[in-house]
Amino acid sequence: MAERVAWLLVSLVTLTMITFGLGVLAPGDPAEVVLERRLNQPPPQEQVAAQRRLMGLDRPLAVQYLRWVSSAAQGDLGRSWLKGLRVSEALRERVPRTAALAAAAAAISVLIGVPIGILAAVRRNSLADHACRVAALIGASVPSYFIAYVLILVFAVRFRALPVFGFGSAANLVLPAVTLALGPAAVLARLTRSTVLEVLGEDYIRTARAKGASQPVVLVGHALRNSLIPLLTVVGLSLGHLLGGSLIVEWVFAWPGMGELAISAIHARDYPLIQGFVLFAGSVYVIVNFSVDLGYAWLDPRIRVGGQR
Q1: Whole-structure pTM value
Q2: For labelling alongside 117, which of 62, 63, 85, 305 has CA 20 to 30 A away?
Q3: How far apart are CA 141 and CA 154, in angstroms?
C-alpha cells in the first residue's frame, strides 16, 4: 500500500512539472498577451516589463514552479486571461457537466460491451460471434467525431428524434454519451469475450455444470464474476479517459463541459486555463488508476495492493 501511495505522489509531481512546462514552452509572452487583450493593441515594452514583474515572470523558473505548485495545492490555479475568472471557479462550474456525460457514457459502454462479449464467447465461432467481433473492431477503429456526425445525421436530421445541441435535459445527453461510449464498449466487448472464454475452460465451470447449474448461473455467477478484474481495469481507465478526453465530442455537440472550455482556451491562448485543465484531467486519470488497483484487492483478497499474490 505504501509503495502504491508513493508512486501516486511521484506521478502527481511529474504531472505538475509537465503542466508547468507547457506554460513555459508555449509561444508568446504571457505578460504581453494579457496587456494586448486589455488594451486591444500592442503594449509598450515598459508596460510589458512591469506586467512581467507583477506576474512574477522575472523570477527563476524554479521559484515560479514552486509558487505555482503551492498555489495549486491550495486550489488556486490562477486567473483565466479569457474570462477573468479564477481557473478553479471556471473548472468547478464545468466539472459536474463533464462528469455526468462521462458517467452516462461509462454506463452505456458497460451495458453494450459486456452482453456483446458474453454472447460472442457463448456462441464461439458462430455467425453471432463473427458479427460481434466485426462490430467491436469497427467501434474501436472509427474516430469519435465521425460517429458523432453519423448519429446527428440519423437521429437528429433524418428522424428528428433527438436534439443536437444544448444542455439541460436528458435528451441532450443521449447523442454525446452514446458517441463517447461506443469506443470503450468495443474494447470492453473484445476483452469480455476473451476473458469469459478463458474462464469457461476452467475446472470449476465444468464442476458447476456437472452439479446441474443453469447456463445463466454459470455465466453470471461464475464466469463473469471471475472475469471482473480485467474488466474493472478497462472500465476504470475508460472513465478516467472520458473525464479528460471528451474535448472533441463536447465541442461537436456544444456540451458546456470542460472539453468545450479547454478548446475555447486553446483558441484564445489562455494558458492558465489550459494548465488547469491539463492538471485536473491528468490528476483524475492518475487517481482513477490508483483506485482501480485498490479495487483489485477488494474483488480478489488474494491480490495484494502492491501487485503480488
Answers
A1: 0.82
A2: 305
A3: 20
